[in-house]
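Q: Could you fold this chain for me?
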Amino acid sequence: MNSTGNKTAAGAASKGHESVVRSAGVVSIAVLMSRVTGLLRESVMARLFGAGLIYDAFMLGFRIPNLTRDLFAEGALSSAFVPTFTEYLSTRSKAEAARLANLVATAILIAVGAFCALGMIFAPALVHLLAPGYREVPGKFELAVRMTRIMFPFLLLVALAAQAMGVLNASNRFAVPALASTFFNIGSVGFGVLIGYVFGPRLHLSHIDGMAVGVVLGGALQLGWQVPSLHRLGFRFRAAIHWSDPGLRRILRLMLPAILGNAAVQVNVMVNTNFASSIYDPQRGFDGPVSWLSYAFRFMQLPLGLFGVAMASATLPSISRSAAEGNMEDFRRTLSKSLGMVFLLTVPSSVGLMVLGKSIIGAIYQGGRFHLYDTEQTAIALSCYSIGLAGYAALKVLNPAFYALNDARTPMLVSIASIAINYATAAAMIRAANLRQAGLALSTSVVALFGFFVLFAILRKRIHGIHGRELASGVLKVFLASAVMGGAVLLTTRGMEKWLGVSQMARLADLAVSIPVGLGIFYLSCRLLGVAELDLAMRAFLHPIRRRWAAGAARPRD
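A: Sure. Below is the predicted structure, expressed as structure tokens.
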């Protein structure tokens, strides 16, 4: 009886874990489209504006409101809202859940809207605080202030889009919100080019002004893309204000410390921007380091979004239900499997970015005003960012686990410590080691790894284990397989460079050969080492494709 019951429970748990990973596979495919279109958007910007005064100013103006993209879209709002909203859907009526969603949306409109207005008013102070070095270059500070004021409303739009994403994820709808960023990327560059280059002269707008307006319109498109799915589920926005509502108060109580708990890496990026704005490059002066770091960080966002954010989005509703039901064994098992999957996917990605950084950046960005020197400097920063990729992705899964347990205080304290560590590390690497932008990227990696190890140790003790031996064994095998892959790809890329040179076409040819070689060797190495998560990952990522294929084959033909 007990044996049969245990087998049934184990089977149900296994199906539950596979469902989580399968959902993550759906999200990853959607996020892949988002990240690819994001790289295309960055490629357009690189070719039009290069790495210098104009793009530095644009990126700072974008980064100030975009800080909340991580805090809201992939951070505090989702982490605080999804567990509470999931509990309402599970234990209360749909009408009560819809009312909670409306309360949160109204609160966002009021609070974030007011913050946007203040940000536009005090834009000069914000730019001076974050990039005091911009005053050293004539016109750069003023342009950054104008970019900040134009793009600040993006903050409100992305916050509302994040709340919509939370509603859809809690309702087990993952693909539509994951695709929302794709529409932002397409909309921002499409509207930006149209306004900046077609209508700009008539409206007395510069090219870069048009790109800034395009960001705001892209944010509106990102929100609007999700609205039809919300309507199909029966959720329609109706303004509602009730600040003492228990559900809203619970979300705010979790969210306020969660903002600090999720903000470490983004705040550290802002601190590093401050340092980078004061770096003097022998060839570029004060122009360049901010852009190099920005382009490199965009590449790290690709595997981070594909694997870290996707796993976190799929895992959070599942562990929230487990916590609400008091099923801690399922909580532990789901968390362990999710972390194992994160390491399986991000460790080889990190090695690949380090080895193939020059070829990737050269193939996508090099050309126009983005020169070979920019490629080399950006690749250095990317290698240093990649060291912390696995830790950064794992944090995306660990932070929400604390919020599912109604603990936002622990991630907040670790985050505050991380910010202090980043500042000290960045300052030492810039002033003592003179590593320039490489030191700043490396300090971000150090902080991500620090946050992961501390949160993992605390959570492991709190929930009495996360199947640590099994997880450690799997991670060790992944590291070994990644090392073998890295060695093989290094030989391939060096050979291709000697044979074909460093032109853009040569970089593309290198990627066309080296990436399949690396994937094949990593797959075979994992097979030989017996990495348990490999089959689960293959099923999860192939399932959406097979389902689409089967649906197409079953469709009647004329």
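A (continued): Residues 1-14 have pLDDT under 50 and may be disordered.
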